[in-house]
## 1
Amino acid sequence: MRKQSFLAKLSNRYAITWMVLLFLAGIGFLFLPRLFSRFESIAEAYSRRVFPILSFVPSLITNLFPISNTEVLVVCSGFILLIMLISFILRMALSENRLRTLRNVFLFLSVAFFILASQYTMMHGMNYSRLPIRRTLMLESEDDYNAQEIEQAMNFYLDGIISAQAELDHNDRGETLLLTSISSTLRAGNDSMNNAASLHPVFSGNDVVPKPVKLSKYWSYTRIVGMYNPFFVEANINVSTPAYEIPLVVCHEIAHVRGIAREDEANMTSFIACLLSDRADYRYAANLYAFENLIADMQHYDSETCDDLISRLPEAVFADWKASADYWSQFEGKVSEISNNVNDTFLKANQQQDGVQSYNLNGRIFLDYYYLYLVNPS
């Protein structure tokens, strides 16, 4: 007599009950961030105290692998889905009780949905509801900056660009090169984030090994430069982009791993971490990022002064700008449009009403940070 499996002995009543409970629990997890958005202080406590503990083991396991687990999964996903489909068809064809087999499949799907929903919420979703980082750093000035104040800040960032460039090498086209190999450059993001965390504890968290994506050139068709996978607690980096863009992307994705979910705040965190870095390539990226974002403000007040500031930029900056424009022009098309729309929908579903526009930082952030922490450190 053949022994019955647990699923075979499970009654339809219990199976359906478990399916409903798991599905509702998964939905409940997905709605938790919206609930806690009304209680930002509780969400902040979760992000700072609970999240680092919960994410430590998954990130530790992910760090053991030198390659991108996310990339491996994506590449193998078609094959895995095909195997699962064939297995399902064979089971249905050979089953003596097809309704029970179908029931078991749905039970498996409900378990998978619950696990994925809870993992996403705990490893990322809840962090959308925390206190805004700019409020924590007191970067919410409502004062208007005049032309002289903007010029002073731009001169500071310009000096940072020139100083960093003096330490960097360039290729035969004059484009900026990274200080070290791509693997050590990616790992250096942790040191930069830790430097920033010594001044701003809100940036503290677990160290991570950012993973270079082998198929980065093909990934560029989506116009995505980095991605945090909350299911693996893994930071993935597009390493085919112009070199000077990489440091900001690295710190942006590490910011996600450390519980900073909103895209504008991850960008702000990345800027500060790169600005305070010991590495010239990281500092160059941050100072140039700030300078670029202040050009429009300066142009509005005093176009002549703005043109003068731009003319003082090192030649490498113009080579880097051209390299970036040339690189990304290759990937314009339907794929990038679809990717943009999907990302826009995802961000709006996660309480970022501006969608993909939330990646953009207002020039005021760079002015607020300069006047609060750089020219008048407290």
## 2
Amino acid sequence: MNTPSKQNESNSMRSITERSRIFAALNELHLKYRNLGEGAVADYIPELARANPDWFAICAVTPDGQIYEIGDYEQQFTIQSMSKPFVYGLALEDHGRDAVLQRVGVEPTGDAFNSIIKLDSSNRPHNPCVNAGAIATTSMIKGNGPTERLNRMLELFRKYIGRKAYVDMSVFMSERTTGHRNRAIAYLMLNFGMIENEVEQILDLYFQQCSILVTCRDMAVMGATLANGGVNPLTGERALDANYIRDVLTVMYTCGMYDYAGEWAYSVGLPAKSGVAGGIFAVVPNKLGIAVYSPRLDPRGNSVRGIRVCEELSQNFGMHLFDALLDQSVGCAPDKTPAGSLPEGAVEVGDQATSHSINENGCASGSANAANILNSVRR
């Protein structure tokens, strides 16, 4: 019979082994794609063109705060369009679902992120992930003047990241100086009555929003915050009302990858958002936040390495949202995988079951260590 001390020692050794296996899986993907030379660094914003095309990082964060990272995970870059779902959540908190839906829809467009306005039958942008919808969403941030609105936005990102948020002023000025297309979109929106008269103030806030500095680790923490019902897993601070998690994740799933959204939903199957600085973050609800950073972009403005890594993680660990429905092993039916064996291409990460529930604060609870999480997702 094991004594409590021996049991604790055994659990500790198992945890170390499981963490090593997860790191090995991420390291394998990093090694596989670090020399991939496809894609090009964004240059339509001059400051973004200064990025090193070889920067590459992968990070995963669990709802219990475990962090797994490889590569240039501390390299700072600007959040760009990955900011849009979080600001959409703030607009929902400020105004409520019905009021936001009157100003911004939730329909995918199939268009590029910076396409000139396409309005739906209600005279509104189709969704908050295209630039027109994001500008409309940013215009809804409450505050007495531009300084208070900026401070509220920075406070929002502080809650998600777990540290003070900063704007990269050189990128902000670069966007402000060269953002002619966004300026044209904003004035067209003013013409159609979609935003108020303070167009330049709205654009400044939008450019500042896109110029917030993050790391790959930060984005994984932000993804894990959404996965954890809106509560930052590192600080325990709530960043988003649990009532609006569904709204944000739904828009990310259907619209987050622009004119690649359908193929992403088919091949990866996770709520996600990309940015032209080279970041992609994805959410496995109740289980994981994932982020990849690599500045080389495909023609749609998505990170080439980021898409490859997310595709393999989804396939190898069965992370697609519909895998659980089709396999039924995350639910009531028994696991059909023979004892002692793994699905082809999967990495063994543990053998304990995991159980999650939503407490009164809307947070995921229950056993949630990283190995159990990846094991349950894989099945």
